[in-house]
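Escalation from tier 1.

The customer reports that the assembly of two entities below gives different structure tokens on two consecutive runs. Tier 1 could not reproduce it. I'm attaching the input and our single run for tier 2 to review.
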Amino acid sequence: RKEVEQDPGPFNVPEGATVAFNCTYSNSASQSFFWYRQDCRKEPKLLMSVYSSGNEDGRFTAQLNRASQYISLLIRDSKLSDSATYLCVVNRDDKIIFGKGTRLHILP
Amino acid sequence: GAVVSQHPSWVICKSGTSVKIECRSLDFQATTMFWYRQFPKQSLMLMATSNEGSKATYEQGVEKDKFLINHASLTLSTLTVTSAHPEDSSFYICSAPSGGQGTDTQYFGPGTRLTVL
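Tier 1 run:
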């Protein structure tokens, strides 16, 4: 079993819809959690850090559930520009573990 | 946010030559930097952890003699692909943690696209 797992998608979602991704991690010693987005042929860019208390940034909400060992990302009122691959990143003992990413296509 | 640069942004070389890629943290110091490789339509793969003042730590399956890493200063790490072959063609990306700890937010360089003919 991979340490960080994501549904690769693609998720094809109409513009304006709400979409949610989950990412599960297997090591309970994981310490910090992030969502990055990566556009085609570009480097990943930090979308948001993820905290147990949950955090929101505009249309994006991230949540961490330590008991069930998953993090989630919710995108509301999706825009065409949200089309990208969303990477779940988990840090543990100075190691960085990436999920394989979830591809999102927002349809006009 | 913190800025990480990479140079060159793209390079084409002949098989058998060596290519050096630089990764710089522009407005912060990084005792640790990370190097990744990404093949088309695949996920990022961590290749190695670059440590200032000590040897790099390589992930399983990554040849340390082929991918030479030098963390020359607190703002510069270099990756040299030695005796490059077409199968080394890939997108190479570096990252550095903003707070100096591996568990901090990673900031990525813009990547270097390597094509080996």
